[in-house]
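Supplementary Note 2. Why include the ligand at all?

Several targets in our set were suspected to adopt different conformations when bound, so apo predictions alone were not considered sufficient. For every target with a known small-molecule partner we therefore ran a joint prediction. The input for pyridoxal-5'-phosphate is given below.
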Amino acid sequence: MSEPFQGHTPGLLADRPSRALDLEEFRSNGHLLVDWIADYLKDLGERPVCEPTAPGDVRAQLPRRAPEQPEPFSEVLSDLEQVIVPALAHWQHPGWFAYFPAMSSPASVLGELAAAGLGVQGMMWSSSPALTELEAHVLDWLVDLMGLPQGWKTSAAGGGTLTSGASSSTHIAMVAARETCRGRTGAPIEQMVAYTSGQSHSSVEKGARIAGFGHIRLLDTDHDFAVKPGALNSAICQDRRLGLTPASVISALGTTGTTAVDPIAHMGDIATRERLWHHVDAAYAGSAMICEEFRHHLAGVELADSYTFNPHKWLATNLDCSVLWVADRKPLIDAMSIEPPYLRNSASDSGQVIDYRNWGVSLGRPFRALKLWFVLRDHGAEGLRQLIRNHRTWAEDLSTRIDNHSSLTLIAPTTFALVSFAHVDGDAATRALAQTINDSGRFFVTVSESDTGAYIRIAIGSTWTSRRHIDSLWRFIEANALQTAETPTRERH
Ligand code: PLP
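The joint prediction is reproduced in token form.
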């Protein structure tokens, strides 16, 4: 007869396979690591934003083979500091203004740690009930906090799910759009058309491609980079004449290039009339909806079928954490459900629980809601609003300074906290200015291109950025933005 299970004290087991099971070591190493992270963040402003590194530098310092024997944690930590950190672009640096932010915060880091410590898996309710219920609950909270349609709550017909990113969210939405169109029209997917702005993020085109849409139309935009009214209607008419099947439209609430907002209500009206799935990509700007003054941009979302935004961009929650909401969860679940016998269970059969594996592509799902919950509770909605408002105010101030400078010109309105501008002397001067900014090691910006040429994007959104960093960035720009050449001068926006 076997001995009854007595439980054990990990770490005291004589036959444990490695000291990886020693919880006392875990405890002390964990404290060391948290101290290390706190020091890293405290001193980050003193480092160059992007450490100078050549391709292959890091691998050249790593052993050719994985260790056969356990190594002390102190050595791992020391290599983290000496090999890895000096070859990073420091996204949490207060001088980080590139791309869009990948905002994090101490509460989020702790939430991530707690999720890793719990190590649970949220493929369905029964695989970890609290994971599913917290996710549904927090996303219902966000519906209220962001002034979104009540019908998007899991307590109503819709619901939210957390995914790895807006690319994933959009991909999932496009599969639901495809299946809805197939069910309604019987059209083959090669005939289906998706419509989006010429300024939309590449993930939209990729999502359409992965979902198998036969065609994607990139609609013309106006001088503010938003879809031109009329562009969607004429593209649909033309495609119908060609015998194609319009299936989906994706509008942007904050494009990547300049944070332009498409005419969502107008596009939504057409989508409703034509019975197209309307997905709204608010990956970056969606976070701002926590502040009421931005909510006029939501006009028309009540007609949308799905909507995505990334707390991992601008809501103090570290990667990865993207929300996908649907107005009606049924078509999504119909498109995504497969029921193998090994996943069947009585809770699912009862129809009373959410099984998030049927809301997306991945089966295995991490406990993403935990960090979001930590962040919401640690900041409170008011704290998050304050972060967004600060960034917005500093971006407006910076825009005004740029607008008043004779050598610089804004190329798009500053709608959120992204400032897009160019040097009046043209592309070479713009690129040279960006290079000078980045070479300083104190700030990091990205350059993009529009129809009128190259421009610099300054996206304010690091947790650790304060007004004084924006002031010193401005002083640096001002000192380096002198008229450079007799090349043709750009028109001011
Ligand atoms: N949509 C927009 C408007 C974006 O700006 C981005 C990224 O910057 C994405 C989608 C892709 O987001 P993710 O990296 O979460 O897939």
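Residues 1-13, 485-489 have pLDDT under 50 and may be disordered. The longest strand covers residues 245-252. Comparable summaries for the other entries are listed in the accompanying table.
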